[in-house]
Amino acid sequence: MRTVTCLSYTGQPSNECPESLQPATMQQCESKCDATPNSNNDECKDVNKVAYCPLVLKFKFCSRGYFRQMCCKTCQGH
C-alpha cells in the first residue's frame, strides 16, 4: 500500500489533481523484487543514453523497476 499525494509544481500540497490521473493507492508487487541493496556501487550507474534521470527523480518514478534500473545512480537512496 502507498500514499498518493497531490502536489503542485512547487512541491506544495494541492487539491488540483484530477482523480482520474492519480495512480492507484494499491498495486501488485513486481514479480522480480530486489530485496537486497546493490553491494557493488560500481555496477550502479545511470544508462548513458538516458538523459532523463533527473526527471525520474523529480517525479518520483524511482519506485518503478524500469526507471530504477535505467537511473540506478540517480535513484540510489530514494
TrEMBL record:
Q: Which controlled-vocabulary keywords does the entry list? A: Hydrolase, Metalloprotease, Protease, Signal
- Protein name (database record): A disintegrin and metalloproteinase with thrombospondin motifs 6
Q: Which InterPro entries match?
A: PLAC (IPR010909)
Start and end residues of each PLAC domain: 40-78
**Pfam families linked:** PLAC
Query: GO molecular function: any one?
Result: metallopeptidase activity
User: Which superkingdom does the taxonomy of this entry point to?
Assistant: Eukaryota
